[in-house]
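thought: user wants a sequence for this fold. calling inverse folding tool.
action: design(structure=
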């Protein structure tokens, strides 16, 4: 007879452990609420050494009160934590490593703290798990990085503990669900407690502890770009992109990365795009944050729908007044979702367009450079060809190679940048810094943001290279060099090689697209200042103070 060796095993150990921790914290709680000044004691009670702690902090929204409280705990009690963060953005995110509260990190992006991250790894103060894309990190929260503790932020909570996350829902639901449904503890900072919520974004049954923060959570206007700072070179590149990519391939759905390059495209749609008769033919469906520079295109009838990763400060009233375009709740506020918008950007859109700090001669690119461990964010999710895609669109089908037996399309992945960065440093390099950074940080693989095999188009101030048309790595190198300008990569190429690529349609310069360089003037922008954006919005856009310096 076979004996069942599991007869005496407990199958509720995680639940029992959670209950035990919560009982210890009970004296500090009134219902689910803890007094603001007692949050540090509660964290010391609920968090144990070596716990996995997921801390909300993406590009814009930061659980800033809880991160500050975590950095204040006694490191003799709370220590050796494994931190999981979308974005390492605030000083205290790294203070907890210097104090010994945490020793291991898995993250997606570290732009504001990238220099310090690199130094701390070099000094042995931080042990690296992996650098992830957003979707990769979110996915692992449900597989092998399941959190013991979640520290998140919301706008409001009612007495029962239901949460309202408002326009900046962002990654909150994903983080909470991964924790709550595996018997972890969910701790939420809120801006205020109210009797009745505008809507319920997170049910109380998913939440364990709530604290009303001393100050509202940090929220950055990360995707706002002042049109005054858009250069004529960026306008030229935007014209090349509209004519040589969007029009050529009938791009209907897309994601724009952050930056002045893409802001220029957005502001040229109602002017240059209109002159080409492209309204209703391109750029109708978007997965993108609510960039203020999209306002003229929305008002001109170019855009049908926008699903947002997060909100943007100052855009709240405008978004609420444009319910035909944005995803809104019954309360009239935006419902954003970083996870779902990343998924839409990966599988549903025709095109991703972004930029980079370095690109090698084969088209591989990275924002990780010497001494800076910046990470990726969502660019690799957006900037690759998802093999799971099956639905067809004109742009996707336009990438087919008809000689293949099982023909299929391809997502358009566009890298758009000037040939030189600040300090006149060439963007095009023979060897990515990321290769050496990987060795210095003991990473298993170099932190490449977008691989050359996925890049279909390269746009610079010189023109556009149709990399999807190349038939070999050698030819791809030639196409990249043809638009690399007066960098070492560009100067190695002969005029004869460039003319051959032009004749084959692998490279196009502005004159090949019917664009006169002299036409790339700021007068083409539909809005030339933040004040113009406010006017376009019928005074609904309320810019943050740092963008009012020119007209306050």
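)
observation: tool returned 552 residues.
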């Amino acid at each position: 007879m076979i004996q069942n060796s599991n007869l005496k095993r407990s199958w509720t150990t995680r639940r029992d452990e959670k209950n035990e921790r919560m009982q210890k914290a009970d004296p500090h709680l009134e219902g689910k609420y803890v007094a603001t000044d007692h949050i540090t004691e509660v964290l010391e009670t609920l968090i144990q050494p070596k716990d996995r702690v997921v801390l909300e902090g993406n590009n814009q929204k930061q659980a800033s009160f809880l991160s500050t409280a975590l950095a204040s705990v006694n490191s003799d009690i709370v220590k050796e934590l494994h931190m999981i963060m979308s974005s390492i953005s605030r000083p205290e995110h790294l203070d907890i490593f210097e104090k010994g509260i945490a020793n291991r990190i898995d993250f997606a992006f570290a732009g504001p703290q990238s220099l310090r991250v690199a130094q701390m790894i070099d000094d042995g103060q931080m042990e690296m798990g992996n650098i992830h894309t957003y979707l990769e990190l979110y996915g692992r929260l449900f597989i092998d990085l399941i959190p013991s503790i979640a520290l998140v932020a919301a706008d409001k909570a009612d007495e029962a503990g239901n949460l309202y996350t408002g326009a900046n829902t962002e990654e909150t639901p994903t983080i909470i669900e991964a924790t709550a449904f595996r018997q972890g503890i969910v701790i939420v900072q809120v801006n205020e407690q109210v009797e009745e919520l505008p809507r319920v974004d997170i049910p109380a049954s998913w939440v364990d502890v709530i604290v009303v923060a001393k100050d509202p959570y940090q929220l950055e206007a990360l995707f706002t770009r002042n049109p005054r700072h858009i250069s004529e070179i960026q306008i030229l590149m935007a014209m090349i992109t509209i004519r040589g990519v969007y029009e050529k391939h009938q791009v209907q759905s897309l994601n724009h990365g952050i930056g002045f390059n893409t802001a220029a495209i957005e502001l040229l749609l109602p002017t240059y795009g209109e002159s080409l008769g492209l309204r209703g033919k391109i750029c109708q469906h978007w997965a993108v944050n609510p960039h203020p520079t999209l306002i003229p295109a929305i008002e001109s009838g170019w855009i049908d729908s926008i699903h947002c990763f997060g909100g943007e400060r100052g855009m709240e009233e405008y978004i609420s007044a444009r319910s035909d375009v944005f995803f809104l709740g019954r309360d009239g506020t935006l419902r954003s979702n970083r996870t779902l918008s990343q998924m839409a950007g990966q599988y549903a859109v025709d095109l991703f367009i972004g930029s980079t700090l370095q690109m090698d001669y084969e088209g591989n690119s990275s924002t990780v450079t010497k001494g800076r461990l910046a990470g990726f964010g969502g660019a690799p999710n957006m900037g690759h060809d998802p093999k799971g895609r099956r639905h067809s669109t004109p742009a996707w089908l336009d990438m087919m190679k008809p000689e293949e037996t099982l023909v299929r399309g391809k997502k358009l992945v566009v890298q758009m940048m000037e040939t030189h960065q600040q300090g006149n440093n060439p963007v095009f390099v023979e060897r990515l810094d990321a290769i050496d950074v990987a060795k210095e940080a003991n990473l298993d693989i170099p932190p490449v943001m977008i691989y050359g095999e996925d890049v279909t188009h390269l746009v610079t101030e010189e023109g556009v290279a149709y990399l999807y048309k190349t038939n070999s790595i050698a030819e791809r190198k030639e196409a990249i060099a043809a638009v690399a300008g007066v960098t070492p990569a560009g100067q190695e190429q002969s005029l004869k090689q460039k003319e051959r690529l032009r004749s084959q349609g692998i490279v196009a310069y502005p004159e090949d697209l019917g664009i006169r360089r002299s036409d790339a003037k700021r007068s083409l922008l539909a809005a030339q200042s933040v004040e113009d954006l406010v006017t376009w919005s019928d005074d609904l856009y309320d810019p943050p103070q740092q963008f009012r310096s020119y007209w306050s």
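thought: summarizing for user.
answer: Here is the designed sequence. The chain has two domains: 32-219, 227-531.
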